[in-house]
Amino acid sequence: MSDPALSEAAMSEAALRSTLQELGRVVVAFSGGADSAYLAWVANDELGVANVAVVTAVSPSLPADDLADCRALAAEWGLRFHEVETAEMSNAAYRVNDADRCFWCKDALMDALEPIAVAECAVVVLGVNVDDLGDHRPGQRAAAQRGARFPMVEAGLTKQAIRKHSERHGLRTHDKPAAACLASRLPYGTPVELGVLQSVERAESALRRLGFDELRVRHYRDTARLEVPIERLAAVLASREAVVAAIKAAGYRYVTVDLEGLRSGNLNAALQLDGR
Taking phi first (over 0 means left), then psi (-120 to 50 degrees means alpha), and beta for anything else, what does residue 170 get? Predict the structure, then answer.
């Protein structure tokens, strides 16, 4: 007996492939996460390498480990891979880190991707899925205004379906923890500064070496608030001395642990409290 969930997911992938065929040539914004990786793999499989440029935006908000994995995935999958530098840090509207920070980040991304798309006679596509539509994501608005397409949204693909298909295709990104840019660790209103991003990156990288693959280090001046999944809280306490040392070595004076656990995008809750 067939699995209804798998059948629904299969139809969604067929719709995705149909949308990509309609577009013909695409430039995939590639962060290396589960969503953009799946989109890049399917596009390459459906349209062929000559019709798919896979591009990673390089900036201080991209962890070095993530960039290295993008390069590794591109080599493993035979993608036509490019790196471009984005200039969001030069934009005061981005650095002020208000509720529209992600708008200016994606605007800078489109500044970098549009020349490639023009040269390729292609359309920029982003790895947005339907589950992303319910959160505060001004970056999606910025990209759409600049002509980007979200083919996985058009195909009705959820995060769960993307992970299921990725596993079926043997993609090692199928269970990759959700990630976000380093600037997302700063509460709104805290200016985005290079030194702050570097501190967050050092802390998270050190914690990953301790075995905590899914985490966020939220920045509150000299205090770091660590988020891990609820089921990993005991492991944090068991490794308390090493965890504290790793975070303090990144420049923080105080180390706290969020007892509510990891919640992707939870800093957006402050926007609801402010009525935005």
Answer: left
Euclidean distance between CA atoms 30 and 265, whole angstroms? 20
| For residue 51, pLDDT beyond 60 | yes
Cβ atoms of 216 and 187 closer than 8 Å: no
Span 218-232, pLDDT tens digits: 999 999 999 999 999
CA dihedral sign, ordered 209, 210, 213, 214: negative
3-state secondary structure of 205: helix
Res 239: pLDDT: 97
Mean of the per-residue pLDDT values of the chain: 92
Q: What is the C-alpha to C-alpha distance for residues 218 and 227, in angstroms, rounded to an integer? A: 8
Q: At residue 190, what is the residue type?
A: T
pLDDT digits (tens, 9 = 90+) for 87-127: 999 999 999 999 999 999 999 999 999 999 999 999 999 99
Pairing of strands 81-85, 123-125: unpaired
Q: Burial code of 48-82, b = ≥16 C-beta within 10 A, e = fewer?
A: eeebbbbbbbbbbbbbeebbebbeebbeebebbbb
- CB neighbours (10 Å) of residue 196? 20
DSSP line for 215-255: -EEEEETTEEEEE--GGGHHHHHHTHHHHHHHHHHTT-SEE
What does the angle CA 51 – CA 59 – CA 103 come to, to the nearest 5 degrees? Answer: 80
Report the helix count and the strand count for the chain, using DSSP H and E. Answer: 12, 7
pLDDT of residue 132: 87
